[in-house]
Amino acid sequence: MLIAVEGIDGSGKGTQSQLLVDRLKKDGITTGFLSFPQYESTEFGRRIGDFLNGRFGDLDQVSPFLASLLYAGDRFESRERLKELLDANDIVVLDRYVPSNVAHQGAKVSGDERQEIINWIHHVEYTLFQLPTPDLVILLDLPADQAQQLIQKKQQRTYTDKAADLQEADGDYLAQVRQVYVDLAAQNDRWQTINCLSADGIRPIEDIADEIYSVVRSKIKN
């Protein structure tokens, strides 16, 4: 079973992915884990770091069709490792996957062009690069304003020395990414949305983790 944990920057994907992996292992379920992009492990991953640091221009200066190839190439370089994890484990949890590419690049365009790039990314990653399709996509849904507050609390990342990279610093862009994610979730029954915000503010990490685990266990039973 391949599970992708998705959401805008700052939504808690890394934290929740690791908590899910730890809990599955505690319950005796063999579980592998992989995080994308592989900034330090692939050639494409290193170029993604350059892109997010603005080396190739601002967000609106790089065609989303071209930017999508960096992320797709990173996963293509990681494909054998992913297959090995799937062969060796009952479940593999991914912190970001193909849907992340779709959401981030699709957010830069609208209308027919958005559908065009969605189709393009699916064709490149799933058909040409033959990456496995996720059995379950967990969307951590959080508004951009709250997500940016959490981004400021992140620890130093290996690919940037900035508090926020090119995408994280743009609140309007993150809001568009969130909308693409929400639309994708509404169109696919393999997606499960977890609301990370309550009337009292951002939900406790443990509460979100419990809901995610409940969803995953229900899918395992099926």
Compose a concise summary of this entry.
The chain is of the alpha/beta class and 222 residues long. The chain contains nine helices and seven strands.
Describe, in plain words, how this protein is organized in 3D.
- This protein has 222 residues and is α/β, with parallel strands linked by helices.
- The protein has a single domain, classed as 3-Layer(aba) Sandwich (Rossmann fold), CATH 3.40.50.300.
- The protein has nine helices and seven strands; from the N terminus they run βαβαααβααβααβββα.
- A hairpin with a 2-residue loop joins strand 6 and strand 7 (201-202).
- Helix 1 (13-26) crosses helix 9 (205-221), helix 3 packs parallel to helix 6 (111-128) and helix 5 (98-106) crosses helix 8.
- The protein is globular, with a radius of gyration of 17 Å.
Describe the SSE topology:
Blueprint: E1 2-6, H1 13-26, E2 31-35, H2 43-52, H3 64-77, H4 79-88, E3 91-95, H5 98-106, H6 111-128, E4 136-141, H7 144-151, H8 171-187, E5 191-195, E6 197-198, E7 201-202, H9 205-221
Parallel strand pairs: 1-3, 1-4, 2-3, 4-5
Antiparallel strand pairs: 6-7
Helix pairs in contact: 1-9, 2-3, 3-5, 3-6, 5-6, 5-8
Q: Into which percent range does the helicity of residues fall? A: 40-55%
CATH top level is: Alpha Beta
- Level-2 CATH architecture: 3-Layer(aba) Sandwich
Total strands: the figure is: 7
User: Which structural class best describes the helix and strand composition?
Assistant: alpha/beta
Major sheet details: 5 strands, parallel
Residue runs with pLDDT of under 50 for 5 or more positions? none
Largest sheet, order of strands side by side?
2-3-1-4-5
Q: Return the domain count.
A: 1
How much strand? 5-15%
Q: Any idea of the CATH topology?
A: Rossmann fold
**Number of H- or I-type helical stretches:** 9
Mean pLDDT across the residues is 90
Order of helices and strands: EHEHHHEHHEHHEEEH
Global shape: globular
Radius of gyration: 17 Å
Write the CATH homologous superfamily.
P-loop containing nucleotide triphosphate hydrolases
